[in-house]
């Protein structure tokens, strides 16, 4: 009888130790993976629009710019999946601005749900949410900021507008150009950049990420948010000959 009691006590102790160990691991993981927001700082979200698992396609060039921005900020290795927002997040601080970088893990046509969830979680106003997306009507190599307005046929932007109930979000539009010949728009946007185009794309990623960061920090320093200042005009990268 005594041996059975001792065995039961041992099992209880083992169970308690296991539960405590799992709780400790969970707590440490949260501390390491979840950087708390500094409530004294202004908070801005930067969203790279695209399709999960298709990061090298023209349609997902917004995600590529976001990755370049994360590298510029030194947080490229700190992405984490956040199921609450249906996306991948990384947090950073830049000149008094708390940045929430978001890659939705939903298809382009419905990724506005991820953007809205992140806005709710981090209490970010729509005017402080920057959307980065591909732009058919701009040639490859050209990029520019746009302050709100129409989605111009872009389903990802339209999804964000529908979910946030507004069109005020500033946008970084990355030109991918229209398809040549008889190639359909769908095949063009879901296709990858050619080897010849990739060198140009790399320069676009770097320069557009830098322009976006300058815009965000300048806007915050004015204390007026993204709508309170004249947006940068953008830029263009040309092929070196």
UniProtKB/TrEMBL annotation:
It is an enzyme of class 3 (hydrolase). One of its GO terms (molecular function) is hydrolase activity. InterPro entries: Pept_tRNA_hydro, Pept_tRNA_hydro_CS, Pept_tRNA_hydro_sf. Keywords: Hydrolase, RNA-binding, tRNA-binding. Transmembrane segments: none annotated. SUPFAM superfamilies: Peptidyl-tRNA hydrolase-like (SSF53178). Residues 222-241 are annotated as: Disordered. It comes from the Eukaryota. Its EC number is 3.1.1.29. Belongs to the PTH family. This is peptidyl-tRNA hydrolase. It comes from Huso huso.
